[in-house]
Design brief:
Largest sheet: 10 strands, mixed
Shape: globular
Distance between the termini: 50 Å
Radius of gyration: 26 Å
Oligomer: single chain
Amino acid sequence: MMSSHVKEGGPVVLGISCSHDASACLLRGGEIVAAVQLERLTRVKRDGRPFLNTRAAADYCLDAAGLTPDDVDLFAFNTQNLVPTQVGLNFPFADESFDLFDPVGERSVFVSHHLAHAFAAFFSSPFDRSAVWVVDGSGGSVIGADDLLLRGPEFAEYVNRPMPVPRPPYHVESAYVFDRSGYRLIDRGVAASFHPMCGSSSLGETYASVSQYVFGDWQEGGKLMGLAPYGEASRFGESLLTKDDSGISRFTSAWKQQLKRANRRGTPMEYRDLAARVQADLEVALVERASRVLALTSEADLAYAGGVALNSVANQRIVRESGVQRFYVMPASHDAGISIGVAAAAHYLLTGDTKGTSVSHDYLGRSYRPEEVDAALTGRGGFLRSCRYDQRQIVERLAQGQVIGWFEGGSEFGPRALGHRSIVAAPFDRSMWEHLNRSIKYREEFRPYAPVVPVEVADRFFDMGPDNESPYMLRVVQVRPEWRDRLGAVTHVDGSARVQTVDRIRNPRWHALLTAFGERTGLPVLVNTSMNVRGEPIVETPTQAIDVLLATQMDALVIEDRVVEPATATYEAIEDCLIIRAPDVELSARVGVHGPEYQLTSRPRSGLARELPLFAFLLLAGADGVTSLRDLLKLHCTASGQRSQALQIVRDLLSERLLLAGGKAYADASA
């Protein structure tokens, strides 16, 4: 029986994506109440399994809505490649400990992969009718139907069907027409196999295999896209595409024989021409296919999803060259978006409505209460200083070259930080790009940064083409030549930039900040990058945001209505301070060739290490945030010269933000 809470708000559906980039989404009455990627909670990049293995993301969404599992009308899920005869043993429905719902029970719904992507794209789009296009590496296989939208008992029957021989091919491209009352499949592309380390059976698979070759990880397509502008496609060779019997351009496997020797893991720059070649060919193939989808569906508007849809360079070419009238790319086009899609499909089962309530932004995480922010600040005690937010002061700090974190409201659901979990800086000089990579993000030097700009002036600085809006940072456009020198921190080597536009409705505080920054400097543009360091997910909680501030060279953090910065100590007063190691900075000891060796290492900085003498190692091991540095020096630096050497080590580590200094005086000043 439906609870009274559900009756008042409409049907409640909880969707879960079981894949890499796992996630959960809660709909109530056709409106997204909350959605989150699992990685934001576990802090494991791209966390997820191909079965129901955790309820962490689901519980996050239920808690945000004030609901319990008993309030849910339908639980919807997808596992990417769940086909008959494979279920069980090492390919289960669910982990032994998973107790949220029964995958084949009456309240369960299974949605096949591409249909889930398609529902997600249309549900979140501004359209009431459109073509919907899905392109990824592989969407799994389906037996006896085009797609699956099955209640639990029906799904139990499905997985016990015999597997045909040969095995059905994998879905890699799908085109639908959706309207508010339903959908139909128009066209489907398939591949015989899927292997992201070596395959060339689909566009997404080929791009993934090149990513694997260059970076050792098939999921680093974003890096490959950023590397491509440094190369020349023609230097690698002729196009890798060939025409099939129907005239469609496809990758084949023949070209890979040029790379039959293993990558010796040199610098990615050695493979920039390969990156340029595969990127250029992907763009050609996608523009061709987008035009074909529009022709087959007789639609002018296109909603687009699947992992390949995150290629923002190709997206801009689709806007300009495919003939599309209105083009919508779902922010969470990758497998995280599947949770929205399965929830939308289940909502459709209950109501007959494919749309629900319009989704106008990507800030789908829960907001944190003032007392939660206060608790996070208190947790770092006297090692922080804080004051009330003042826009003029932040504008001035940015104009002077400071780097500021920005934490506001609910987190972004997609992979791009769009102003709620961001780091911002002035866009003027290439040196800022280098500073961000070297001292804050700790990532590869070749990776560019994105500009954020008010939508109403975006075309003044960037060649936006027929559509001025790019709210989700999913289009790469050219920086207008006359502004490239003044936008050195966001202009890529080929003159391009992955632009985010901001309007007064979706993000009023950021729009006001950009406007004020423009009045101060003449350029209403800032660098926007996600608040995380290399290899880490974007931050979710206030505590995680504070830890990024303290573990990097970021100057300050705007966290809701507060501005927070590390407490600093003058060298004259340093002995009276309390010291602690920065977040994720560790001490280690080992036996080396010449005896014991002692190190201080920083995990966020890709294992950066500082060698220490024993007395300094012991001093830092005792740095508990309670004992003053003066007392630590007395305890551990008894031999001649050790005191002055230890002080210099502490000062150096403080300047690098590997140590933090504070004390009661700082706590009093922040109160």
